[in-house]
Amino acid sequence: MPPTCWVAPPSLTPRTSPTRRRRPPTTPRRTCPATDASAPSTSMSMTSPPPSRRRGKGQATILAMAALLFLVAMTLASFNVSQLGYGKIKTMNAADGAAYAAASTLARDMNFMAYTNRAMVANHVAVGQMVSLVSLSKELGMLTEELATGSKVLGVLTSWLGVGEVLITLGNALKQVKTTVLDKVPNFVKPVVQAEDLIVRALQGSQVAMRAITILDAEENVRKTVRANDPAMRWDQTTAAGALSTAASLNAFIGYSSIQGNTASLDRFRQVTMESRDKFTTDRRWLLGGLSRGGTELRDNNRTWTGLDGAMLDLFLFKLPIAWGGAQAGPDKAWRPGSYGGIKRQVADPAYATREKLPGYNGLRSYFDIGDRKRDDSKSQSGAIVVIVTKPVDAPDVKTQSSGRALDLNAPDNPYRLPWSNSSVMSIAASQVYFKRPVRSQEGTGPGVAPLLSLNYPNGEYASLFSPYWQARLTDVPTGVNAAVQAMY
Predict the structure, then answer these.
(1) Residues 14, 16, 17, CA angle at the centre, nearest 5°?
(2) Phi then psi dihedrals of residue 6, to 5 deg
(3) DSSP state of 436
(4) How far apart are the C-alpha atoms of 91 and 109, rounded to whole Å?
(5) Are the CB atoms for 436 and 471 separated by under 8 Å?
(6) Could you give the C-alpha distances from 453 to 277, 447, 461, 466, in angstroms and in order?
(7) What's 370's DSSP letter?
(8) What DSSP string runs through 197-232?
(9) Dist CA 315 CA 402 (whole Å)
(10) CA distance 252 to 248
(11) Where are the domains of the chain?
(12) Which site from 143, 335, 362, 384 is most exposed, i.e. has the minimal number of CB atoms within 10 Å?
């Protein structure tokens, strides 16, 4: 039987003063004798914390959870920004490389146009040389025939002196030279002129074909460059922004330089051709000690070469025409006095009237050149070639938290993923071709440098498709194109 516990009565505090606060009655003390440890206890503690402590408990947990969520959001945002920045850098590199590849392709094309234009000039000059050769041979043939006839007549008249036979033999030899050599020159030259015209036609066709191939090649080079940087990237041509950039780029390929075939352009080509003539074609006054003068010119119809030669004997009181010759390649063009090496009208008229016509030449042809040429540097660079490169944000190496690949889970979006409005990373770049003209310090000296260092071009020549000094470089994206593209993406 468990021991009986004695409970002490509550103590009473006497009221000694009306101002002293009354103490609450104390709880009765329970006194129990010592019991065995194994005996069950019949007492139980009923102590509880104060109400104010119960109300403040758990507030730190809420703040900690809020801070944790904020840190998680910032971590995910930082992860997204860093991954997208990495993708942006790669697309920028790809866009720069692709734009430069397109400009390099166009620069190669324009240098090809310059070389073929020079080749066409050389072939037209060669036609002028053939005309000069025929014109001179006609004059020499006439002069040789006159000398042969005079030698024979003089031989007959001086036969009694014992030298007549020699003069007659000399006359026969001169006649043989005319018939076997000088008279054969036109027959030899005619197929050469026809071949030169065919070469010019082939060069003209090669320019057209080259420009078409260049456009296709530039497109392929852009695709290859983008693909080489990252197979997941693509060159944007299908969206509105891509179509706008492509349209802007086409101006550099077909607007900046194109086929020139109007009268002003052909006049320019004729001027370049005339300035490229050699001394034999330009002025032949060196023959016969200055008695003979002649020259060959490309006429202002841009289709006809005319060569005139004539010799006159100055007899003090008057000048006697003794021989003349002329030749023509291309359609008939009425002769008008010009330089022709300073030939006199007295022999120029009969030389033109008896000219040898060389068929098969069709004159200057259309060619590629800058559309709006000026004698300054304002046209020394093309318009911008704009390239837009995009890359999906769910590409394997752009593992943004919003792409479903951050942890290679390939899971659908859920409320714990941060939103991302764009589905791809975009970069835009631009390039252009420009003319790097030689300067005096780079050219040195030599016979071919004098025209380049003339007073008209003190620092070198201006941009044209007659000199292969075209190069490629990156440039700023045009403001209008950049603003439009940014608004569309």
Answers:
(1) 135
(2) -100, 130
(3) -
(4) 27
(5) yes
(6) 18, 11, 8, 16
(7) E
(8) HHHHHHHHHHHHHHHHHHHHHHHHHHHHHHHHH-TT
(9) 104
(10) 8
(11) 113-219+263-358
(12) 362
Cα separation, 92 vs 430, in Å, equals 11
- From first to last of its 489 residues, the chain has per-residue pLDDT tens of 455 454 445 544 444 444 445 555 555 555 455 444 444 444 444 455 555 555 556 677 777 787 777 777 776 666 666 666 666 788 889 999 999 999 999 999 999 999 999 999 999 999 999 999 999 999 999 999 999 999 888 888 887 777 788 888 888 999 999 999 999 999 999 999 999 999 999 999 999 999 999 999 999 999 999 999 988 889 998 888 888 888 888 888 988 999 999 999 999 999 999 999 999 999 988 777 778 899 999 999 999 999 999 998 877 777 889 999 999 999 988 777 778 888 888 899 999 999 999 999 999 999 999 987 666 666 788 999 999 998 876 655 555 444 444 444 444 444 433 444 456 778 899 999 999 876 655 555 555 545 444 444 555 577 889 989 999 999 999 988 888 888 877
Q: Quick check: 279 and 128 in contact, CB under 8 A?
A: no
What is the helix (H) or strand (E) element at residue 389, kind and residue range? strand 385-392
Measured distance CA(322)–CA(56) in Å, rounded:
132
User: CA-CA distance, 342 to 132, in Å (whole number)?
Assistant: 15
Among 483, 427, 488, 477, residue whose Cα is nearest residue 88: 427
Closest C-alpha to 285, from 276, 300, 275, 295:
295
Beta partners for residue 323, in sequence order: 311
| pTM score | 0.74
Strand bridging mode 356-358 / 319-329: parallel
Q: What span, in angstroms and rounded, lies between the C-alpha atoms of 89 and 109? A: 30
C-alpha–C-alpha distance, residues 195 and 192, integer Å:
5
Q: What is the 8-class DSSP label of residue 395? A: S
